[in-house]
Amino acid sequence: MTFYRPDLHSELLRLCMLQSSEYKSPKLLLGSEVATVDINNATVVLTNGSSISGDLVIGADGERSLVKAAFKELDTLRPAPYRIFRAIVPTETLVDNKRQWPVLSLTTSKFAIFRKGTRILSWFEGRDGFLQDLEAGYNISLDEDQGPETDPVKVKQKMLHTFSDYHPSILAALRKAERVSDWPVYYSTPLAHLHKGRAVLIGDAAHSMLPTTGQGGTQSLEDICALAIFLHSDSLKGKRERQVEERLAMFEELRKERMAIVQAGSGIMFGDEERLEKTKWGQVLKRAGIRDGEGHLRFLYQYDIFEESRKALEEGMRAKARL
Known about the structure:
Layout: H1 5-16, E1 34-38, E2 43-46, E3 51-53, E4 57-59, H2 66-70, E5 78-90, H3 92-95, H4 101-107, E6 112-116, E7 119-126, E8 131-139, H5 152-162, H6 168-175, E9 179-187, E10 195-196, E11 199-201, H7 204-207, H8 216-230, H9 240-265, H10 280-287, H11 293-301, H12 305-322
Parallel strand pairs: 4-11
Antiparallel strand pairs: 1-2, 2-3, 5-8, 5-9, 6-7, 7-8, 10-11
Helix pairs in contact: 8-9, 8-12, 9-10, 9-12
Family: Belongs to the paxM FAD-dependent monooxygenase family.
Protein name: FAD/NAD(P)-binding domain-containing protein
Domain FAD-binding: 50-242
């Protein structure tokens, strides 16, 4: 299953703003830039001078997170030695050309990957098949790199040149792209902590990773599901502040182990696990029992975050009761 990012954002916004008598409705503040974060008092100060306080600050503010910076720990974010051309192609511009039908049959309702050497082109549908999302990754030399191309005409020319030896049907689709971006990629190694004081990190703020396995958004959703279990209001009784910190410790323990493995495998193509098992990242997968592409897929997609979070919460509560 794939999602067109704006559609996913719209649906998450709709769910977030639902009105219910069972919980407080959130207040959305648009155009409110954060200046500083006080993680010990769960307070955010905006650039307009106003401040907002709560029980908890959830840092979902990306790989250059201000919440993460407030932890004052080593930031492991670094540039990856490749970039991605990102392009959107309306499906209607392809279906009229019969020569495109064979490649469209490979990508309809599927996530297709076309690999040639170190270059990888990922192709998947968006907006119920009305759009085709093409993401074309290529290696760069960090020592010689001049930065991503920003001119819209030049970036498309650069993409077509970089992938000029791909199949004519794929090149024809790339030529139909209305707008192309040359996207820099960053990743981090596992952080020392996912929570500190009255703050917790999720998404790219917690685990920015390489895009090869397509796990950035997926793991963000797992973070959200886990927090929904650990911080459900029905299970928080008594001294809330103390309990929230205890629950965040449980969240961290559950997520850190899995995220270390997911991040290690995020730059490895499915099927390359055995060939790369002697590398640093391959060793992490091997210790987790992941030896091939099928095992890697099972690890990623047969994991029940709700069930694992419930079990971790129950075990944590039992351990606390024994004290």
